[in-house]
Design brief:
alpha+beta, 5 strands, binds zinc ion, 15% helix
Length: 112
């Protein structure tokens, strides 16, 4: 299965159109998950954490090579959270699940 085929939120199960929602990927292990909203990432990571194994997950081309939380250079363990809104793709990278959790709980990129 490809990342784009993840058709529902892995936390609440609501259906997702291909051009909407959030995707969390771990390219080094070809793993991914999908979410309807950012608020569903943290509870999923802490309580379910049941990733989909996908055919091939690439590091998103527009991804920054540094962790959005710590500023450290990303390595093999990196995870990326991808927000799709129509044709626009916004990507944030994280050193690991702790950083991802921290960022998601704080409200993400546009946190006050
Ligand atoms: Zn959801």
């Amino acid at each position: 299965m490809a990342l784009a085929e993840l058709g529902k939120c892995d936390w609440c199960g609501i259906g997702l159109e291909s051009g909407e929602g959030w995707r969390l990927v771990k390219p080094a292990r070809n793993m991914g998950a999908a979410f309807c909203r950012l608020e569903h990432v943290a509870p999923w990571l802490t309580e379910k954490n049941d990733w989909h194994i996908l055919d091939q997950v690439e590091v998103p081309p527009s991804a920054d090579p540094f962790c959005a939380v710590t500023g450290n250079e990303l390595d093999e363990a990196a995870m990326y959270l991808i927000r799709r809104h129509g044709d626009v793709e916004v990507v944030d990278g994280f050193s690991g699940p702790e950083e991802t959790l921290k960022w998601a709980r704080a409200g993400g990129r546009y946190a006050p």
